[in-house]
Amino acid sequence: MHRMAIRSCAIGLMSLSAAGCATVTDEPPMAGAGSCDADASQALVGQMANQDLAAMAMRQSGAGVLRWIPPDSAVTMDFREDRLNISYDRGLIVTAIRCG
User: Fold this and answer.
1) DSSP labels for 28-66?
2) Which residues are CB-neighbours of 32 under 8 A, at least 6 positions away?
3) What is the mean pLDDT of the chain?
4) Residue 17: helix, strand or coil by DSSP?
5) Using the 8-state DSSP alphabet, how is residue 98 labeled?
6) Residues sharing a CB contact under 8 Å with residue 37, sequence separation 6 or more, in sequence order
7) Residue 59 · residue 36 · CB < 8 Å
8) pLDDT of 53 above 90
9) pTM score of the predicted model
């Protein structure tokens, strides 16, 4: 049963990421409108990817846009100084937090 819950959550996160710059909710967490600084969010690496983590990372980084990056996915190479990228693995554990 626990395995099904993780799979359902993973599918939900992947479907959000398919939309491009996806957010965890319908309303993007508006933390900042300026440039992104991921240094303050590095303590979140290794934690479970979820809505609360996303909101905290957005506040800490000052980013205005969030993009989830699921495992084994292709992403655009365009650089946005206001975008926070959160990568996670198959277990929904955050593996990297970067700007761009």
Assistant:
1) -----SS---GGGGGGGTTSBPSHHHHHHHHHHH--SEE
2) 58, 59, 61, 62, 63, 64, 82
3) 79
4) helix
5) E
6) 61, 62, 99
7) no
8) yes
9) 0.68
> What's the confidence (pLDDT) of residue 35?
86
Residue closest to 41 by CA, chosen among 29, 12, 15: 29
Do 63 and 41 touch, CB atoms closer than 8 A?
Answer: no
- Per-residue pLDDT band at 97 (split at 50, 70, 90): very high
The 8-class DSSP code of residue 93 comes to: B
| CA nearest neighbour of 21 among 56, 60, 72, 63 | 63
Position 30 scores a pLDDT of 52
List of residues 6+ apart from 38 with CB closer than 8 A: 61, 84, 97, 98, 99
